[in-house]
Design goal:
By secondary structure, this protein is an all-alpha fold. It has one domain (62-290): MetI-like (MetI-like fold, Orthogonal Bundle), CATH 1.10.3720.10. The chain is built from 13 helices and 2 strands; from the N terminus they run H-E-E-H-H-H-H-H-H-H-H-H-H-H-H. It has helices at residues 4-35, 54-59, 63-95, 101-109, 116-126, 132-139, 154-179, 183-191, 196-207, 209-224, 228-233, 247-256, 261-290; strands at 38-39, 49-50. The chain has a two-stranded antiparallel sheet with strand order 1-2. The protein is globular, with a radius of gyration of 24 Å. Residues 69-282 form the ABC transmembrane type-1 domain. This is Carbohydrate ABC transporter permease. Keywords: Cell membrane, Membrane, Transmembrane, Transmembrane helix, Transport. InterPro entries: ABC_transporter_permease, MetI-like, MetI-like_sf. The chain crosses the membrane at residues 12-34, 74-94, 106-127, 153-176, 207-227, 261-281.
Length: 291
Amino acid sequence: MRTRGDLFTGYLFVLPVVVSLAVFLIGPIFYALYISFHEFSFLAPEQAKWVGFENYLKLFEDPRFLKAVKNTSFYSLGVVPVQICIALMLALIVDSKIKGKTFFRVVYFLPTVTSTVAVSVMFMYLFKNDGLVNLFLSKIGVPTHDWFGDLSFALPATMMMAIWTTVGQFMVIYLAGLQDIPNDLYEAAEVDGATPWQKLRFITWPMLRSTTFFILIMSIIGTFQVFDQMYVISKGEGGPQDATLTVVFYLYRAAFKDFEMGYASAMAFVLFLIILLLTVIQKKIFKEETV
């Protein structure tokens, strides 16, 4: 039977976590919500002015914010499905009976633990005018491009970098899901004469539905919060002509360059609502598919 002393001890152990969450997570969230309704700058917090929903309404009249939303949506639509397909393919490869599985797992996962800044600098070197990519294209007769300086290619080139750096993380998650599938199902399918494609379609893919949902949500959240790659690639400007400007990048500029903290906070909560809406939609779709 638990005594008051036991309860006190338990609460005492939980207290540091509760205080940390309150000070570093919950408190800042509510404070950000508060200043999102103000014209606010940390350079002069005493001059904060209540503006109501003006910051939120201003977002939908701001062409740069709408451009950032468009870029981020295009980036997410291009990266997410490709990430999922490649991650599943790589997981199937390293889960099969091939030699050197450990080596391939390490090679595929290595970009995930590499510094994003280092990867961005490496891709800038590869895709520059006289870089290896253009050198290879010129050898096979394909026109070369100024990849990160061209309006049409800056964002797609960044998407390729993002896929390469993050696909290993989702491969590991898929690999864990594959290893949870009972072998009895595959053995029964082989007895019935199922082909590898049929086993993938009717056993592997349905059994990975919950894993795919988790990866999909994580991938959407990650793509909508992209910042560091864009910052390095565009040298902090979001160029060329805002072609690599994303919502979080614009939020950063509004908060720490223009010092419009209230406007940046409103932007953050709008981004939160967008991600929440997409998550709810995906959850509903996956739930309906499993019925």
